[in-house]
Automatic annotation (TrEMBL):
<feature type="region of interest" description="Disordered">
    <location>
        <begin position="595"/>
        <end position="648"/>
    </location>
</feature>
<dbReference type="InterPro" id="IPR052107">
    <property type="entry name" value="HEAT6"/>
</dbReference>
<feature type="compositionally biased region" description="Polar residues">
    <location>
        <begin position="596"/>
        <end position="613"/>
    </location>
</feature>
<feature type="compositionally biased region" description="Basic and acidic residues">
    <location>
        <begin position="358"/>
        <end position="369"/>
    </location>
</feature>
<feature type="region of interest" description="Disordered">
    <location>
        <begin position="303"/>
        <end position="398"/>
    </location>
</feature>
<dbReference type="InterPro" id="IPR025283">
    <property type="entry name" value="DUF4042"/>
</dbReference>
<feature type="region of interest" description="Disordered">
    <location>
        <begin position="1008"/>
        <end position="1030"/>
    </location>
</feature>
<protein>
    <recommendedName>
        <fullName>HEAT repeat-containing protein 6</fullName>
    </recommendedName>
</protein>
<feature type="domain" description="DUF4042">
    <location>
        <begin position="408"/>
        <end position="588"/>
    </location>
</feature>
<feature type="compositionally biased region" description="Polar residues">
    <location>
        <begin position="628"/>
        <end position="638"/>
    </location>
</feature>
<dbReference type="InterPro" id="IPR011989">
    <property type="entry name" value="ARM-like"/>
</dbReference>
<feature type="compositionally biased region" description="Basic residues">
    <location>
        <begin position="321"/>
        <end position="330"/>
    </location>
</feature>
<dbReference type="Pfam" id="PF13251">
    <property type="entry name" value="DUF4042"/>
</dbReference>
<dbReference type="Pfam" id="PF13513">
    <property type="entry name" value="HEAT_EZ"/>
</dbReference>
<dbReference type="InterPro" id="IPR016024">
    <property type="entry name" value="ARM-type_fold"/>
</dbReference>
Length: 1074
């Protein structure tokens, strides 16, 4: 070859970031671009299509052409239709008797379908399925591995379309069941069969799920595989591949639609997943259970718990651990994020720097669950490597590969656990919390939980998966964690359940804080901060001893300058959760008022400090300097600038200044993790300005107008994350008194939110609905504080658009619907008589009420139905609504009557009962027939108020009885003479004695000790003393005595009235007795 024939390569600068050198295959450069490969494929494909079954040299030609097609890597060439036609034609040419050709055809099918993602039509799918299933019956066993590999590619995501062959594959004696059985001696066949079953169960988004019959069969096979021990004389690596395939299949089953566990399937699956979460972890040598059983949740605090009383732990690590702390020498981990999957798991030679208490052990010893360490060290035992030579020999390479496979198993088990958590009802999941989340403070041996993985696992991907599972468990757990409390002194006789939950929250704080210090992977660090945000958003800090949030607040301050954009955004999300905690806690208010540099003397340090000042140019000094106008730092002013006390007090909180700077000022440079190819929407930081319910004044007028202008503009960003955050921020701003009374700002915000409600992103629509709910809340506040003037200034057309948009949104996803119905209730309450009588409002008004009725009666989540009942009650507060004559009013009352007596969720029943007690006069209830229906429904609901076996509902039973009793007395207070016969029929018999018993308790205030007591004012509509209730009953008695019956039916009504009066007099006398 002459010098002129040699290829010319562009010069490549030598740098650490340069791609590694890869030698070219001989003569491969001569082939030129991928178009040459495509042309070669087209030539081979044309020759194949020209072949006929009766050709004399068919076998030789097929063998040659198949070899040529298998020898290349293809990119894109023939259309999918031509590809399908080719595969069908070749399958007709290769007889099942020619097993070598069968193998090559199966390899070609796998090669093309897997590499080019060919979408097959139904005919091609059926032809290839028939061919491969026939091959499994006819061909020798040695061919079945390749046949099953092709079959796994064919059925990938096509499970529902394979219905004609499913019985043959997954029936009682199906071939896949035979090969996937734990008794199958050929491990490779077993692995490929499990992969086939997993691909059959895989559900493509928008596709119908696999039939439950075959999904259940596959689930049991996968679960049995996970519980089966490794066969003797089986290679460890091959067995790991079998477990990986079973985990993949289990995840596909759980993610392929709604799943119901039968019997002990849930406990068995959780036990297997927990064991595999620690697969290959050195030092873990415990006897794993085959089934996990839910821990019984106590119904009352008085029941003794299984654990002895324990002293509540401090949020700080114990003193004896401080002796083991070591600053260590910081080591860089910049390559950890850029490695491929294999390299990331195999090459764990670099040990992260562990600063002040930030070891992977989390400050603990190994305990009884882990074998004893060889000596005191902050590094996990499996992360210490003596020398690089351990990986140079074949044995070391095999061990490295085994560590990689074990890490993949741990990751797959956590993915399955995440699918279980997302698909399981929260109340069912709570029983298994103690198996995955520690609920005891430091002192005893550490259990093996998700925290163990987060703090100790050497793989950043596995740690990130564990954090995702923990975040999913914490998300939506506010109702469960609301029981936690440790403000009182612990009882010495037993440990209350509330105290155990408080311990769990403190343990999570401690562990996640240590993970925050020790984590070096940016992706995993983002998950740590997100997990902390879920914890902060759901934990009841007002019931816990102070001191948990201040250290976290100060520790997060340096991370707002982190080089990774995802870390910075998650930090803002966490700060948003912190400032919204119980709106907000005094502890948070104090932190907001502190100057930004106030934590410089705390001595806190994170391993990431070396990269925090990423905005500064190389060679600049590290001490902070005042920010120049042309440069932007995450600090709006230097902490070294001296300020007078008056300036400090009058300055806006540093967090607000930070958010304004992040939104309005351009970035100086992009970080390496963001890349240079980002779109213009990412030139500014995302703006999750979640400053809800803060007690402080907004900035001065100029800065306030700038914030508003910027936010209104950001709602039209093409980046949905920016749009979501901006729309939510407007929903926060509308609650500030200085803005909510500004009609122009209300109108601008409303128009912006209405545009966002039509966005294609469900996240944007959900935040827009939430902001619309807040805006309509502000309308009600203005109506009560400002008065009619504000109502008259607001445009009628804008109100009509809001009503119609909220009605449409009530048919959206549940997370949009829950706030849409809240907005409907506020709007129906806000509308004036002049608007309701206009013809333009008649149809939208009816549609809005019917949307609420439909939501109340639907199978939506309980939160949505709860909000819909509340919205109907809110609408009933508007005296201008024609409840007595409107055709839709009957449906509204009927829906509330139905759920108050039949809904399983007590909070929904409480809200429906409260709504039925809101109409202020008798005319709103319609005729005597409707009034009687409302009374009977409330009486029936009171009789059945204890009929539940669910502790999470039972704890609201006192609040339900309170609300129902209040509603019944309200109906008595507005009743008229025509209602007396129906009231007599109810109060005269056994039902009347039951009602009387509950009314006595209500009037004496004996039924307010339940969990729902804090909602008394909202749920029951009143928060009055027993003396006031007695006076109200006396006034009702006086009113009933003065009632005069109508001429028609006078005697019957008088007789009934006398009975009702006697009932109330007897009730009043009983309540006055000591």
């Amino acid at each position: 070859m002459s010098r002129s024939d040699a290829p010319v390569f562009p010069p490549v600068p030598l740098s650490a970031e340069a791609a590694p050198f890869t030698p070219l295959v001989a003569d491969s450069w001569r082939l030129g671009s991928s178009s040459d490969v495509d042309k070669q494929f087209s030539r081979c494909a044309a020759k194949l299509r020209a072949l006929r079954a009766d050709s004399s040299q068919l076998r030789e030609q097929l063998n040659l052409l198949l070899d040529q097609l298998l020898s290349e890597n293809y990119t894109s060439f023939l259309p999918f239709q031509d590809m399908c036609s080719l595969l069908k034609h070749v399958s007709c040419l290769v007889p099942l008797s020619q097993e070598h050709l069968v193998i090559k055809l199966c390899q070609l099918v796998h090669h093309l379908l897997n590499q080019l993602k060919v979408i097959m039509d139904e005919r091609t799918l059926d032809v290839l399925l028939t061919y491969t299933t026939s091959a499994l019956k006819v061909c020798s066993t040695w061919t079945h591995s390749d046949v099953l590999l092709a079959l796994s590619t064919i059925v990938y995501g096509n499970g529902p379309q394979c219905h004609q062959h499913l019985r043959e594959l997954l029936g009682e004696d199906g071939v896949l069941l035979q090969y996937s059985s734990p008794s199958q001696p050929n491990v490779e066949l077993r692995r490929v069969a499990l992969t086939c079953m997993a691909n059959i169960c895989l559900r493509i988004p928008g596709q119908a799920p696999l039939d439950d019959q075959y999904r259940s069969v596959s689930f049991r096979v996968f679960l049995k595989t996970l519980h089966s021990p490794k066969p003797p004389d089986t290679d460890e690596l091959f067995y790991c591949m079998v477990i990986q395939a079973a985990l993949k299949g289990l995840q596909c089953c759980l993610s392929g639609g709604k799943w119901k566990f039968v019997g002990e399937e849930l406990g068995s699956a959780l036990a297997a997943l927990k064991r595999l979460m620690f697969q290959g972890t050195p030092g873990v040598n415990v006897e794993w259970p085959t089934v996990l059983y839910p821990a019984p949740l106590p119904q009352y605090e008085g029941l003794p718990a299984a654990k002895p009383a324990e002293t509540p732990q401090s949020s700080e690590p114990p003193k004896d651990n401080k002796k083991r702390k070591s600053r260590g020498k910081e080591k860089k981990m910049s390559s950890e994020e850029s490695r491929a999957d294999d390299e990331e798991e195999v090459n764990c030679k670099t040990v992260p720097s562990l600063q002040k208490g930030g070891g992977r052990e989390g400050g603990r010893g190994e305990g009884e669950s882990l074998s004893k360490p060889s000596g005191p060290s902050l590094y996990p035992s499996w992360k210490r490597v003596s020398s690089d030579s351990e990986f140079s020999d074949p044995e070391g390479s095999a061990q490295s590969k085994l560590r990689l496979y074990n890490a993949r198993i741990r990751q797959g088990a956590l993915h399955c656990l995440l699918a279980v958590v997302k698909g399981l009802e929260k109340r069912t999941l709570y029983g298994y919390w103690s198996s995955f989340i520690p609920d005891s403070p430091i002192g005893g041996p550490p259990p093996l939980t998700l925290i163990t993985i987060i703090l100790k696992d050497p793989s950043p991907k596995v740690r990130a998966c564990a954090l995702q599972v923990l975040s999913a468990m914490l998300d939506g757990s506010r109702q469960f964690l609301a029981v936690a409390e440790d403000t009182a002194s612990p009882r010495k006789s037993y440990t209350p359940f509330s105290f155990l939950l408080a311990n769990a929250i403190r343990e999570l704080h401690r562990a996640l804080t240590l993970a925050l210090l020790a984590e070096t992977s940016h992706q995993t660090l983002t998950q740590v901060i997100k997990c902390l945000a879920h914890l902060v958003a759901n934990a009841p800090y007002h019931r816990l001893r102070p001191g948990l949030l201040s250290p976290l607040w100060k520790q997060m301050r340096p991370y707002v300058r982190h080089r990774d954009v995802n870390v910075r955004v998650s930090v803002l999300t966490l700060y948003g959760a912190l400032v919204t905690t119980q709106a907000p806690l005094p502890e948070i208010q104090l932190l907001l008022r502190q100057p930004e540099g106030n934590n410089s003397s705390t001595g806190s340090f994170t391993p990431q400090d070396s990269v925090l000042s990423w905005r500064q140019r190389d060679g600049e000094s590290t001490p902070p300097t005042p920010v120049k106008p042309s440069q932007r730092s995450s600090q709006t002013h230097s902490p070294h600038v001296l300020r007078t006390p008056e300036e400090v007090d009058s300055a806006p909180p540093w967090l607000l200044q930070l958010c304004v700077a992040l939104v309005t000022q351009p970035r100086e440079d992009q970080s390496d993790s963001e890349g240079a190819g980002t779109e213009g929407g990412a030139a500014l930081e995302p703006s999750p300005v979640r400053l809800e319910a803060l007690q402080y004044k907004l900035p001065n007028t100029c800065l306030r107008m700038m914030c508003i202008t910027v936010l209104l503009g950001l709602t039209y960003s093409e980046n949905y994350l920016v749009k979501t955050a901006a729309v939510r921020a407007l929903g926060v701003y509308i609650l500030f008194p200085c803005l909510r009374e500004d009609v122009m700002f209300v109108a601008d915000t409303a128009n912006t939110i209405l545009a966002a409600l039509d966005d294609r992103s469900p996240n944007v629509r959900a935040k827009a609905a939430w902001s619309l709910g807040n805006l309509t809340d502000a309308l009600i506040v203005n109506m009560e504080s400002v008065g009619v003037d504000f109502q008259e200034e607001l445009s009628d057309m804008l109100l009509l658009k809001m009503l119609q948009a909220a009605t449409r949104a009530s048919a959206d996803k549940d997370r949009v619907k829950s706030n849409a119905v809240r907005a409907l209730g506020n709007l129906l309450h806000f509308l004036r008589q002049s608007q309701l009588t206009r013809s333009a409002f008649q149809r939208p008004l009816e549609d809005a009420v019917l949307a609420l009725v439909k939501t109340v009666q639907s199978e939506a989540t309980m939160k949505v139905r709860w909000n819909a009942c509340y919205a109907l009650g809110n609408a009933f507060r508007n005296p201008a609504l024609p409840l007595d004559s409107a055709p839709w009013s009957g449906d509204a009352f009927s829906s509330l009557c139905h759920v108050v007596s039949s809904c399983k969720n007590f909070k929904v029943r409480i809200k429906s009962a409260a709504a039925l007690a809101i109409p202020a006069n008798r005319g709103c209830y319609g005729d005597s027939k409707r009034f009687s229906c409302v009374w009977r429904s409330l009486a029936k609901a009171l009789e059945n108020s204890e009929d539940t076996n669910d502790f999470f509902e039972y704890r609201y039973s006192d609040s339900l009885r309170h609300t129902l009793s209040h509603a019944l007395l309200h109906l008595l207070s507005v009743s008229q003479s025509q209602d007396m016969p129906s009231l007599e029929a109810s109060l005269a018999g056994e039902e009347g004695r039951n009602i009387k018993e509950h009314l006595i308790k209500y009037l004496r205030a004996e039924e307010r000790g339940g969990e729902g007591a804090e909602e008394e004012k909202e749920a029951g509509g009143d928060s009055v003393t027993p003396q006031q209730r007695i006076r109200g009953l006396q006034q009702t008695l006086i009113k009933l005595k003065e009632l005069e019956a109508e001429e028609e039916g006078r005697e019957e009504e008088e007789r009934s009235k006398e009975m009702v009066v006697n009932f109330l007099e007897d009730l009043l006398q009983t309540c006055k007795e000591p």
